[in-house]
Amino acid sequence: MLEIAVCDDDILIAADIEKMLEKLSLIVAIKVEIDVFYDGSTLVDYIKKGKRYDIIYLDIEMRKQNGVEAARIIRRIDKKVLIIYVTSHESFAKEVFEVSAFRFITKPIVPDVFQRYFLAAKNEILNHPQYFQYQYNKISYRIPIDEIMYFQSDRRVTYIITKKGNRKCYGKLNDIEKRLNEANTYFYRTHQSFLVNPKFVAAYIYDSMELIDGTTLAISENRRKNVSELYCALKGEDIIV
To answer: pTM of the prediction?
Structure first.
């Protein structure tokens, strides 16, 4: 699923973008959730409260707060979201690149261009996922992958361990590992019950890993070879034997 924000003070254009996104979601068979905003400040306030999007379609010239000012604030909060500017004013191109815009669409919107940029954004997100989405007590949640230190399974429940605290989700560790691997996101499977984010590994010995918070996790004997090979593939080093 993709979570998308559309921000344009022209109600008709915002509605057109929403319709195009809904149509494309059916064509490519991916679920989308779309929030529509009519000024930059309202979008920024929503993000300040913790909302995270995969893609933001953002107009530049808006009355209450323009898109460049909004994007500068958004980038201080969320460096991952893909921002696609939709505007009739190409003179803002320099400012657009300062906030790492993903694409730049001029008005009137050409449907073929809109579709091409949406597919590019979708592929970027699915090939390099920023969030792990999960369910617990029939509620869907998402958490940035780079905040996850490791997963720990305990029977039917998997714990998501972060520096800010722990969360619970339903799902087998094997299925979580498969989902991550299919998205080219690799965690160390150090044990039947542990899946470790390489970002948080401070030290690696052939039979254990120490994380940056001091946690030490043992590597089971039958998994040491695979862990070593993945470690070296990620680090570009020779295999430790």
So the answer is: 0.66
